[in-house]
Amino acid sequence: MNLLTSIIEEGYGTILLLFPFLLALITAFLAFPTIIFIAHAKQLVDVPDKRSVHSKTVPTLGGIGIFFAVAIVLTLSGAFLDAKLLMPVVGALIILFFLGVKDDILILSPKKKMLGQIIAALMVILITDIRILTFSGILGIGELPYFVSIGFTLFVFILIINAYNLIDGLDGLAGSVGLLVSLFYGFLFFKMQEMSLTVVSLALVGALIPFLYFNFSKVRKIFMGDTGSMVVGFLLAFQSIAFIHLNQSNPISQFHSNAPLLVLAILFFPLLDTLRIFYVRVVIYKKHPFSPDKNHIHHQMLQIGLKHWQVTIVIAIASTSVLISSLMFQDLSVNLLLLVIILSGIIMFSLPFFINYSVFNKRFKMNKLLRKLHVISYSKAK
């Protein structure tokens, strides 16, 4: 039993967990102004193009501040918590950090980024042995053989990292999703008394709050960049897989049989957007799946007239609704619960477009009626 666990069992855990959160928060708040200043001085900024939703040059090195805040917290926590769990995560983040910085400054090929993600994910999977053990009967699939388990866990890591990267196209969207997901995982890990994982969640929450402050700023704006999307995406994937692993390893845990489905509900938006964008690009437009465009769900919401902050709020509400649906119906069989999550997710994320279509139709009919009344009144006047 380590020192921190002993202190937590004495009843001081909640107060003590404020320290990693506050350390990440303060570190990030102090780091971002310096990063923004250097980025402008060295012209390390994003220049707007036809795909951009901003009109001014903006630094893209926000991931540096997020990385340093999280890395400092995890490194210091490793002395008191589970170093075997936290140190491989820090090592993986260092790999992704250097890949991301190079991509933000010089552009890195997708193959090299993918290779780096695979190495980082495999390092954590093999050292910590945190992996998806079973499909829990989803689609009739049960326990996975060891190497299949490693391969599938690696696939989930890469999927979540790149799904998160794809939603980073709007002020506050990626940061808000990362914040909400980490808050929820932090709550669950704390309830499960997994303090090392709770610290991972709180460190990311503490780093993302200052990022969102500057990301929404009109004067000192900064973007997450590929560094940030890979670092945050990796941490979200790690938390997701750790949550699944812990519940599948414990037969009496609350989410033993449906942990993968709860993760699906938590990450429904980035996964839905990834599936949709790949379909649009590959099947409809016959393009490369990673070719940039403005066909993301958040871009479509902007086109129907919503503002940046409104899109973020709509997506947050829809995501929360999907999660609540999964919790309400968690006693269903896994395949029925899977169906509930998919249907509720599609309905919630389609709702803004149906509402907009309905409003548009009413306006069109009203304008048509007013034109008729105008013609009638004009002819009577003559």
TrEMBL record:
Q: Where are the transmembrane segments?
A: 12-39, 60-79, 85-102, 114-138, 144-165, 172-190, 196-216, 228-247, 259-279, 309-330, 336-360
Keywords attached to this entry: Cell membrane, Magnesium, Membrane, Metal-binding, Transferase, Transmembrane, Transmembrane helix
Q: Source organism's superkingdom?
A: Bacteria
Kindly state one GO CC term assigned in the UniProt record.
plasma membrane
Q: Which residues bind Mg(2+)?
A: 165, 226
Q: Which PROSITE patterns match?
A: MRAY_2
Its annotated compartments are: Cell membrane
List, separated by semicolons, the cofactors it needs.
Mg(2+)
Asked whether the keyword Membrane is assigned, the reply is: yes
Molecular function in Gene Ontology: metal ion binding; phosphotransferase activity, for other substituted phosphate groups
What's an example GO BP annotation here? cell wall organization
* Membrane-topology annotation of the record: Multi-pass membrane protein
The residues the entry assigns to the signal sequence are none
Question: Under what name is this protein listed?
Answer: Undecaprenyl/decaprenyl-phosphate alpha-N-acetylglucosaminyl 1-phosphate transferase
List the source organism. Formosa sediminum
